[in-house]
């Protein structure tokens, strides 16, 4: 599958707390990158991989297609994996990101922080357990 052109395709870190490493987040957006901040709905993907493999780049065909077809900002969590970070680390990490997005009204991922945020959750394989 040929990936659609993205106006925004990058990687950011979201702080998680003093004693925990930051959360690695991939961002995908097909529209004008300046309009990313104006959204109040995002799609948050937690890619599968049995909690041990498959970071977001392995799922870019789906992630970029969702961004193109929905017109929404799409984020994908590159959660820490076992064995270095045993279960349930990845689930807690994704939940912390979810809470942080809601609490900051999306400011932690580059949204304006002025609107309540709606999050559409997507996942496959092991990460459906979230």
Mean pLDDT: 87
Overall geometry:
globular
Low confidence ranges:
none
Largest sheet: 5 strands, mixed
Order of helices and strands: EEEHEHE
Q: Give the count of helical stretches.
A: 2
Description:
The protein has 2 helices and 5 strands. The protein starts with 7 loop residues before the first strand and ends in a 7-residue tail after the last strand. A 5-stranded mixed beta sheet has the order 1-2-4-3-5, sandwiched between helices. The relative contact order is 0.24. It has 130 residues and is α/β, with parallel strands linked by helices. It has one domain (8-129): Rossmann fold (3-Layer(aba) Sandwich).
How are the elements arranged and paired?
Elements: E1 8-14, E2 23-29, E3 41-46, H1 60-70, E4 74-77, H2 89-103, E5 118-123
Parallel strand pairs: 3-4, 3-5
Antiparallel strand pairs: 1-2, 2-4
GO molecular function, one term: triacylglycerol lipase activity
Pfam family, one: Abhydrolase_3
GO cellular component, one term: cytosol
Features:
five-stranded mixed beta sheet, Rossmann fold, single chain, Alpha/beta hydrolase fold-3 domain-containing protein, 130 residues, 23% strand, AB_hydrolase_fold, AB_hydrolase_3, 2 helices, alpha/beta, triacylglycerol lipase activity, sterol ester esterase activity
Summarize the structure.
The chain has 130 residues and is of the alpha/beta class. Helix content is 20%, strand content 23%. It has two helices and five strands; from the N terminus they run E-E-E-H-E-H-E.
